[in-house]
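=== How it folds ===
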Amino acid sequence: PVALFGLGSARYALQDLAGARWAWERYVSDNPNDVPGLNNLAVVLGELGCPERGLRLAELALYRSSPGDELHAEVLDTIEALRAGAQHPERGECVPDAAVVPSTAD
């Protein structure tokens, strides 16, 4: 599973947003409580035109983090950016495959 996180990061660095999304979707499905994974997936979804779904994941990442966490401020920045983008309608490709939807139940 950690390899998927690294693959997503590598794909994102190469500006392969679809590849980053693919890897992070799968990573998050195996690690639904992972704040960095949730935040990275939220960012890439926003960049792919899926700010509403990205916002839901970023809010979940915020819930799973605490104000003292290093990533807390970064997640807040992600939420702010996604809220600005959520004013535009999402495209059909924003819906994930059922197999890679992270569970939000605790």
